[in-house]
């Protein structure tokens, strides 16, 4: 059984539960947070092997802020940002530009609704690198 720890933060309880169940089914230990504040508190007591953050929670940039916290505290921890913003606005966060990548800090972005097999594949890819 895989005991890698994954921190998930999403203010949508349905998404938090679905992603948690998917990853627990894969054998991961899951820490769930319903807000940026809860995730920040969790980061002070647990070192995640991977983090998955909703982009927009109580603040429009919660996912970016959390990503910066993770990379400052645990630089090797990969981060996935889940967002519905790209679909709603047409924004594309997966820029190959080094300048853009330097301030975004996330390792990958997945659009909501995320397909379980897509999330599973990204988690495995990031943890196996």
CATH top level label: Alpha Beta
Q: Give the ordered list of helices and strands.
A: EHEHEHEHHEH
Broad shape = globular
Helical fraction equals 40-55%
Strand order, largest beta sheet: 2-1-3-4-5
Low-confidence stretches: none
Bin the strand percentage.
15-25%
CATH topology: Rossmann fold
Taking all Cα atoms into account, the compactness measure Rg is 13 Å
Largest sheet: 5 strands, parallel
Number of strand segments: 5
The total of helices stands at 6
Structure overview:
By secondary structure, the protein is an alpha/beta fold. The chain has a single domain (5-128), classed as Rossmann fold (3-Layer(aba) Sandwich). 47% of the residues lie in helices and 19% in strands. It contains 6 helices and 5 strands. Helix 2 runs parallel beside helix 3 (62-73). It is globular. The model has no long low-confidence stretch (mean pLDDT 88).
């Amino acid at each position: 059984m895989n005991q890698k720890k994954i921190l998930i933060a999403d203010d949508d309880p349905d998404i938090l539960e679905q992603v948690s169940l998917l990853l627990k089914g894969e054998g991961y230990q899951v820490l769930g947070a319903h807000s940026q504040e809860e995730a920040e508190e969790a980061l002070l007591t647990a070192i995640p092997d991977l983090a998955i953050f909703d982009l927009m929670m109580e603040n429009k940039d919660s996912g970016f802020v959390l990503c910066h916290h993770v990379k400052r505290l645990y630089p090797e921890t990969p981060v996935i940002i889940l967002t519905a913003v790209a679909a709603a606005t047409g924004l594309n966060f997966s820029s190959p530009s080094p300048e853009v990548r330097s301030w975004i800090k996330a390792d990958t972005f997945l659009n909501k609704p995320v397909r379980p097999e897509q999330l599973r594949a990204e988690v495995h890819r990031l943890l196996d690198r």
